[in-house]
Design brief:
The complex is a heterodimer of chains A (540) and B (447).
Chain A lengths: L1 H20 L5 E2 L3 H11 L6 H9 L7 H28 L3 H7 L8 H12 E2 L1 H4 L1 H20 L2 H4 L20 H19 L5 H6 L1 H7 L6 H23 L4 H27 L20 H8 L2 H26 L2 H4 L4 H8 L12 H31 L3 E2 L2 E2 H20 L4 H4 L3 H5 L2 H12 L3 E5 L9 H4 L7 H5 L15 H5 L5 E5 L17 H8 L2
Helix pairs in contact in A: 1-8, 3-4, 4-5, 4-6, 8-13, 10-20, 13-14, 13-18, 14-18, 15-16, 19-20, 19-23
Chain B lengths: L2 E5 L3 H13 L3 E6 L11 H5 L14 H5 L2 E5 L2 E5 L4 E4 L4 E3 L2 E4 L3 E3 L12 E2 L4 H10 L9 E4 L3 H12 L4 E4 L12 H13 L3 E3 L4 E6 L5 E6 L5 E3 L2 E4 L3 E3 L15 E3 L10 E3 L4 E3 L13 H15 L12 E6 L2 E7 L9 E7 L6 E7 L5 E7 L5 H9 L4 H6 L1 H4 L10 H12 L10 H5 L3
The chains are: A mainly alpha (540), B alpha/beta (447).
Chain lengths: 540, 447
């Protein structure tokens, strides 16, 4: 069994190494004809971009992706600079007409995204040429290896039950060197994905055939991300099934998040695209889905006929009615740890790191400040977006809506939700985004705290303050602080993962939906002591 | 300002301090020689097993004490001078008090076994024991086998601890079945099976004769009394119960028996000196409880109570209905009310065991009145509040079975066995009890 595990680990690392190695493979160049087709499609007005691009990437020598990228970016920069210079020149000449004319020649877009779309057409080499084989050597080996590493645990972990042995003795799960490597890898991955998609164009090639078979289109880096997300979740869900095979709540919950990720977040949107409908994830509620009310999205939905209108109505009803009503009955867990994709990744890939979330009072304070700031941010931004949509004005109070949207997209959408939210799993625990950043979680939290039937019931006086519950709370709730006082746990941040209840050695905690009366029950003297004393001290 | 000094920073002492602080602004000092801050003793095992770090076992953050102006002093109390209301420390220092609360807990029993003080022999009670274990049994290369002596709760925990690091364990139990002084036969057998199936070498009806040293004064082996068999080992865990940790009291005027003698107000024979927790001994056991109860929650309850008395609301220590819990490797155990190992004359019993052999419940009730007396539940969690209420209003066993769904506290979606349990009871007792649906209304009603 151990040998299988070791082999699995080796295969996984080999797959991972090849996956990383593919970045540096392949050669990139375009023929004149290919460039012409591209330019025709793009229909740039710039008169010099064609020449600049030709100089940079129409060559018989194979460029690697980094040279190719810098060539493309240089070409676009040169073109834009050319017109910027003209603008300056006409400006100093006070030739306003001429100056005004120049703006149409400028090309907008993020440099690395422009480079990505060219690179997607320009690649030659092992990955684009023999995609199937390379897919097997990367995804294939990593999946097989990971499963070989995970499945022997059915035997190695021993009989079903809580098996957290050695978690704080292992460098992968106690913020040791393996954890730091995982952290660097994840952070780098997200930075490449969000900001340097052209550098990972070879990875996108790997999933082109899959994308074409689902949506009919070649893959983008977002398709790659979606596919990788589903793959990682599936493999790590198998780990969850083994680890918690004695716990039906965990098994059902894992199955649920996996289903919603694969079907709702991945397959349905891609299939919608195949039928020329807007890409839409039906479970992704505003304000987590922060660009739902952006002008371009509303416009796209309105232009998509009855179906677009249906999505528009559904999106609004989801946030205003479905989400809070469900939170009233079941707590925010129905969303955060049964449906949500971010939660899904946290509960599968992130499960080995749940014990790393900080339980200090300070971190709780930080959490409340940060998450509610994000909520305010998203609401203000949406206010701007809606004003812009209805009034047609690009500015509110002298601030450009677009600028606010860009800042949110960069700071929150990319850096917080991605780079920090997932990249920091091995350091700060697996719910960094959900705990500190997610505006939807903040909104659900208000409902859960003030108007819900959900609570974690503390079982009278049975708590022995051991701290397993607090240690394994991914949301950093000091569960023990309540349990040892005999108090139910009613906290806005609780996502109802059920692990505190699972790891409790004394059967103290139970996630329940019950009547609102008595849900919050502050106590000083616990059940089991003198009845008179309990009444005396607890009468509040 | 009155100075309350508490010796011992365990659950009893700390609970007393917290409640005194809630009720007053008296000066409070907690003294401990073991650790700087309060930690949960019951969680030491999880530190060795790697489930937690030691910091996780501390229920309060380090700033908590200063914020609540509870002074912490790390010192070992050598003698108590009740005449002058002064404590003398081992390092020569001293401290005066106005009121003294002794909450020094327990220490592991040693029964004069030859070799019981060798290196590598330890209990599992203090933080220092954990450090010792880490030193002598860091892995199965340094420690090729460990022997545990004494079949109680700490013994099985220590066996589980060592087992988690793949160290082979031989577990010597004096009785002919695990913990059968407390557990009835069915439950005790279930735990025997659990221990054996985990790969622990359980030796029932086996006593320790002596512990043998190597040339460095370290454990080399143990010899079994009955057979003379020598078992090579590097670590010996002594887990044959605990007794009050009161050696420093012996020369004082405070009356002691096995523990510090206290009345129902937790007062000792000396004015302004109180004792709570594991080290306190009631003159007579309360409501069938033992005079000394080394249980987590009784320590806490005594702390809750003494704080009232100290703060001018003199109140008796009146523990409610007996309850307890534990975990035997993978099997959780809870008990509410009394289910003695042996059935008493007026009692009738009902035992149900799941086909897996890992879950059971055992009901105890009065033969004639059918009044519910207690329940043992293994592998099924039950609601404390439910049984507390049942015991308060003297419900019958039939009522309990009828409302078993209200009692269940297992996580959602767990398989329920209530129908099966009730059917078996009906069949054995010729009754016709109908299981009722779970009702929130009943669960939350006060009576």
């Amino acid at each position: 069994m151990k040998a299988i595990k070791q082999t699995g680990l080796s295969l996984f690392l080999l797959g991972l190494a090849i996956f990383i190695g593919t970045i540096f493979t392949g050669s990139f160049n375009l023929t004149q004809a290919e460039l012409d087709t591209f330019l025709k499609e793009k229909n740039y007005k710039s008169e010099i971009i064609a020449d600049e691009l030709q100089k940079a990437i129409v060559t018989s020598e194979g460029l690697n992706i980094f040279q190719f990228s810098s060539g493309v970016i240089g070409a676009y920069a040169a073109s834009n600079k050319h017109y910027d210079d003209l603008i300056k020149k006409y400006d100093s000449e006070k030739n306003w007409d001429k100056k005004g004319e120049q703006f149409q020649y400028k090309i907008s877009g993020k440099p690395h995204s422009l480079s990505f779309s060219l690179a997607k057409a320009a690649g030659k080499g092992p990955v684009p040429d023999s995609t199937g084989l390379m897919w097997f050597l990367t995804f294939g080996l990593a999946i097989i290896g990971a499963l070989m590493y995970i499945i022997p645990d059915v035997i190695l972990l021993g009989k079903p039950g809580i098996k957290n042995n050695g978690i704080f003795l292992n460098a992968a799960t106690n913020r040791g060197w393996i954890g730091w490597f995982a952290f660097i890898f994840l952070v780098t991955f997200y930075i490449l994905l969000y900001f340097y998609p052209d550098y990972i164009v070879n990875w996108v090639y790997l999933v082109d055939p899959i994308s074409k078979s689902i949506s009919g289109n070649p893959a983008s880096q977002w398709f790659l991300y979606g596919f990788l997300y589903c793959t990682v979740m599936t493999v790590m869900a198998i780990r969850m099934y083994i680890k918690y095979r004695h716990n039906k709540y965990q098994i059902l919950r894992t199955t649920s998040v996996l289903f919603f990720q694969i079907v709702f977040a991945f397959l349905i949107p891609e299939i919608l695209v195949r039928f020329e409908k807007p890409w839409y994830d039906f479970k992704n509620a505003f304000p987590l889905d922060y660009d739902f009310f952006f002008k371009w999205n509303l416009q796209e939905l309105l232009d998509s006929g009855a179906f677009g209108l249906f999505i528009l109505v559904w999106g609004i009803v989801l946030t205003i009615v479905v989400v809070p009503v469900m939170v009233y009955f079941f707590g925010k867990r129905w969303y955060c740890s049964w449906v949500c994709g971010c939660g899904g990744l946290a509960e599968t890939l992130g499960d080995p790191y749940r014990q790393l979330s900080s339980k200090t009072l300070l971190s709780w304070r930080m959490e409340r400040i940060i998450i509610h700031s994000v909520l305010i941010f998203v609401l203000v931004m949406t206010g701007f977006a809606l004003y812009t949509f209805f009034s047609g004005q690009g500015e509110v109070l002298g601030v450009k809506t677009q600028t606010i949207q860009d800042i949110y997209g960069f700071l929150i959408g990319s850096i917080f939700a991605g780079v920090i939210g997932t990249g920091f799993y091995p350091i700060f625990g697996n719910r960094v985004w959900c705990r500190f950043g997610c505006p939807l979680a903040a909104y659900l939290g208000f409902v859960q705290r003030f108007k819900s039937r959900f609570r974690i019931t503390t079982n009278g006086g049975q708590c022995i303050s051991c701290g397993n519950c607090s240690t394994y709370c991914e949301q950093g709730i000091d569960v023990r602080a309540y349990a040892q006082k005999g108090e139910n746990i009613v906290r806005s941040s609780c996502v109802g993962c059920g692990v505190c209840s699972a790891v409790c050695p004394r059967g103290v905690l139970k996630l329940e939906n019950g009547p609102e009366t008595g849900r919050i029950n502050p106590t000083d003297v616990l059940l089991g002591n003198d009845v008179d004393l309990m009444n005396l001290v607890n009468k509040k | 300002m009155e100075h309350i000094v508490i010796i011992g920073n365990g659950i009893s002492g700390v609970t007393a301090a917290r409640h005194i602080r809630k009720l007053s602004d008296k000066k409070i000092t907690i003294i401990s020689a073991e650790t700087e801050y309060f930690f949960s003793r019951t969680a030491l095992m999880y530190v060795y097993m790697g489930h937690m770090t030691f910091e996780h076992t501390q229920p309060y953050e380090n700033w908590f004490w200063k914020k609540n102006s509870i002074e912490l002093k790390k010192a070992f109390v050598k003698t108590v001078d009740t005449e002058n209301k002064t404590l003398h420390f081992e390092d020569g220092g001293f401290l005066s008090y106005d009121k003294l609360i002794i909450a020094t807990g327990s220490k592991p029993n040693k029964f004069g076994w030859p070799g019981q003080d060798l290196d590598g022999v330890m209990g599992m009670y203090h933080k220092q024991d954990l450090e010792n274990l880490e030193k002598y049994a860091p892995n199965n290369k340094v420690c090729k086998r460990a022997v545990i002596v004494g079949g109680g709760l700490i013994g099985i925990e220590m066996a589980e601890m060592l087992h988690s690091r793949h160290i082979p364990v031989t577990f010597l139990v004096r009785e002919n079945s695990f913990w059968n002084g407390v557990l009835p036969e069915g439950e005790s057998n279930m735990i025997n099976r659990e221990i054996l199936s985990s790969g622990i070498d359980l030796r029932l009806s086996t006593n320790l004769k002596e512990i043998v040293a190597d040339e460095n004064g370290q454990v080399k082996s143990i010899i079994i009394d009955e057979t003379g068999e020598e078992i090579p080992c590097q670590v010996v865990g002594l887990t044959a119960g605990v007794s009050p940790n009161i050696d420093f009291i012996k020369d004082s005027k405070i009356e002691i028996g096995r523990g510090i003698k206290v009345n129902r107000y937790l007062e000792t024979n000396i004015k302004d000196v109180y004792a709570i927790g594991d080290c306190a001994e009631q003159h007579e056991g309360i409501a069938q409880r033992r005079p000394i109860e080394a249980v987590w929650y009784t320590g806490r309850m005594m702390g809750e109570t003494i704080a009232q008395t100290i703060c001018d609301n003199k109140i008796q220590y009146k523990p409610g209905h007996w309850f307890n819990s534990a975990k035997f490797i993978d099997i959780e155990y809870q008990t509410y009310g009394w289910v003695w190992a042996q059935t008493k004359d007026h009692e009738s019993r009902f035992y149900w065991e799941h086909e897996s052999g890992k879950k059971c419940i055992h009901l105890n009730y009065d033969k004639t009145t059918r009044e519910f007396i207690g329940i043992n539940t293994f592998g099924i969690r039950m609601r404390h509040e439910f049984f507390d209420k049942i015991l308060n209003v003297n419900r019958t066993v039939d009522y309990v079975l009828e409302h078993l769904a209200d009692a269940n506290f297992d996580p959602e979606f767990y398989k329920l066995h209530e129908k099966e349990i009730v059917a078996k009871f009906n069949q054995e007792n010729n009754t016709n009890i109908q299981l009722k649906k779970k009702s929130w209304k009943r669960i939350f009603s006060k009576s």
